[in-house]
Amino acid sequence: xxxxxxxxxxxxxxxxxxxxxxxxxxxxxxxxxxxxxxxxxxxxxxxxxxxxxxxxxxxxxxxxxxxxxxxxxxxxxxxxxxxxxxxxxxxxxxxxxxxxxxxxxxxxxxxxxxxxxxxxxxxxxxxxxxxxxxxxxxxxxxxxxxxxxxxxxxxxxxxxxxxxxxxxxxxxxxxxxxxxxxxxxxxxxxxxxxxxxxxxxxxxxxxxxxxxxx
Length: 214
Description:
Elements: E1 6-9, H1 19-33, H2 39-46, H3 51-59, H4 66-84, H5 96-105, E2 109-113, H6 119-126, E3 134-136, H7 149-157, E4 165-169, H8 172-181, E5 184-188, E6 199-201, H9 209-213
Parallel strand pairs: 1-2, 1-4, 2-3, 4-5, 5-6
Helix pairs in contact: 1-4
């Protein structure tokens, strides 16, 4: 893989595993509403997907009003925010800070492209903000993943053309977003999760820049 001018990271499930907190918050909401919901469903259908789309899956066709939808999304977010209050800098993947520093030392820009509206809170709790040249989150764009918008926006924050960016994602919807943006896509997780990733690593933990580019 050619050395990119920028590497754009999803946050949840890539540099930290907040996916478990998201699952617990959705599970709490599902239990409130008497809706069966499993870990397997979460991984298969909600990973990397925005809050509204996730809720529509969770409801499984149940009819609710617009105001009920809004209230449920807000309730899930309250549950999630309560859970992430306990996050510490120790929840960055092993070697994650060193990897981000190595990328910056190599003259490559770094950015975050997260679907989460809680992205900044998580970055602050993890003490990662200073490692990024640009941050795009759930407030930055109207259309979430798998639309390309958040990755295109992130590339704009670091003034690098999309064709010179490497996008890093743990969800297939995110890989779709990266490819639609015209970037090279690195998937993090099991190979069978991804349809279109250019390269897959099981994790970024304990990895170096060269591992991402080889």
